[in-house]
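Data's thin. Show one?
=====
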Amino acid sequence: MLSYPFMQNALMAGALVAILSPIIGIFLVLRRYSMMGDTLAHSSLAGVAIGIVAGLSPTLSSVIFTALAALLIEFLRDRFKRYAEILMSVVLTLSVGIAIVLVSSGQANTNINQYLFGSILTVTRQDLYLVLLVALVTVGTVYYYYHELIYTTFDEDGAHIINIKVKRVNYIFALLMGLSIAVSIRITGVLVISSLIVLPVATAMQFKKGFKHTLFLSIAVGLIDVLLGLILSYTLDSAPGGTIALLSVITMVISLLINPFNK
């Protein structure tokens, strides 16, 4: 299996996304913004459709559009805090509308499915380098702003009081989130990206450890889900994205079943 270059690329890209997604996901879950993952995934699909129709790189247009959507959501959330969930629904609907209009025009049909369902086995070296770049930037930025992110995640008002620049931290995180999701959909697909953002974190949280332990455990769970999912999909000749998503659910169910022993 590893003798094939496409499987080598798939495993490396999958491992990077498995590390990247829980790092973003743990802050999303703790902020109770899990829906934002789906919102930005659909925004990235609209970006892909725009790129295909305009004759641009779908990956590049997806990254730009998704980053702008993430910043827009944060801008609106900052001004209408009581309506954050509604605002995300508005952006999601707008993105889906753009994608449907462009796809139904017949100009974006060619490559859209590989972004909708994921196409990890067609990942190129260029895609791999882009994911690696975003992963390095994300890990470095989260490490640099670690304490600020912790404070704003658990107590945004308290973070204001101790003079943390909450707006700047939130906008930086929104940008990282948009970039991470945009580079991941080629691998996992729009329909299952939330499985890698939310489910490994939800699984790790069942063991009731501290924040750092939960973060590293969620990364470990994500790696197991992705790598084992890829191996199973190769063995069973099934869709990689769907196999990874199902394995993520199975892993979470197992953690729920053994959770009573961790009380």
Q: What stands out?
A: The mean pLDDT is 82. The longest helix spans residues 5-30. The chain has one domain: 5-262. The two ends are 41 Å apart (CA to CA).
